[in-house]
Amino acid sequence: MEIDPTLQWLLAASIVIYLVAMYALAVVAQGKIHNVEDFLVAGRQLPLSLAWMTLLATWFGAGTMLTAADEVRAGGLTQAALDPFGAGCCLMLAGLFVAGPMWRQHLLTVPDLFRKKFGPTAELFSALILVPSYFGWIAAQFVAMAQVLDLFFGIPLYWGIALVALVGTGYTLMGGMWSVTMTDAAQVVLLLVGLIVLVIITMVELGNGNAWNGLTRIMDGTEPQKLVVIPRDDLQSLVGWLGVFAIGALGNLPGQDLMQRVFASKSEGTARYACLIAGAMYLTFGCLPLLLALAATQLVPEESDGSVLPVLAHAFLHPFVAVVFMVALMSAILSTIDSAILSPASVLSQNIIPRFASTSSLSSNRLAIMLVALSSLLLAYLGESAYALLEESYLLTLVGLLVPMMIGLYSISNREAPAIVSMTVGAGVWATHFVCGWESFLEPVLQPTGWQLPISLSVTACALIAFFVISPPWKIHWQREEGKGVSTSDTFSFRESRVS
Known about the structure:
mainly alpha
């Protein structure tokens, strides 16, 4: 696709100005960092306005703006099961069932809950599962943004990935959670404005001057099977769709990126409502890229090397408006990158590094950020598709951590053995399927019989059974009353003693 040189220069200048502004915010945020609690959870001071905005900005990245749109253009709305439908429902479920109990624990990381409820070995196991689960998500953002740079500036993918990694890691290092939150707030405003503008102009273009006619034309001109959200033709298709949906809806409930914003909220109510508002906004605005993907099948029916949204922006937007949209797109991806890097780095620095090295918490956090970024960069260079990286990153936390986390959250105390066995079974069975390349549960055994069970739900069920085999549900001390069994004084002061 030929890019107008004027647009290239205008876009390049805008990107430079935007990055300078983001780094200026990071410098301001750096002044708020006095201890590890400030760095990791913004001193537990986020108001509702910042809490929901950083949640939305974190999740509304390349997966929603680029990958999901491309998948829907190719295969229809059933391809949106993972993102945005599954991911949006995950935020809603977190607000209803997880955010409140988690906030009351006064933690810094998700593995802290495993230590508190099960023991130090369970903490280590959960950290070892959680940290690598983010590499695929981060790598997907690197690849997606590098493809956009290749499309508009002709920067080779190899160098583009490195450039995106360098920029995203830079301001994460400077201010931690405060830096991430302040830049997220600015980025999400740009994102929503740019997306709305592109939708309106695309609908007007498709409807020959009338946006409503454009929407009608999409509904009338799109193949009926592409408008189906949930497949109902046969049981296998439905079960497969539910499996992918479960990865998105349940897989990130144990995610550090989600819980870190819960921990950073200034009150339990703030944590709950932030998740609910972000979930509602995600489901609403997450449908706009899908609408654009369907519009693209009629406006630009020929195959393109670029992603759907940048192609539409270049084709139908005035150069100035196209620049606004592209900066918004870049802000969406960068807001996900910085949050996704900080989350596993927090776990690495708080739950793994202190076991093997004596170092200050702030120093170990910055070291962990660099290690996570480099690991994700390496994975991005291995060449896996962005959608595959995204799906596998959600799946690992689902099968490995969801069961023991939810049981621990709603019980008073437990032995370590059930949690360790559950995590080992979940992660181990998933790893076996991943290495063997099986696309359904026990594929060589069950596929000849006509059954194709989704790996996500089946392996999670295995993890649940493993937990209850060691610790039957009737022997677990369930937490029946809100706040019962929770020690609000347990604020992990021993961690702050290591702050430099």
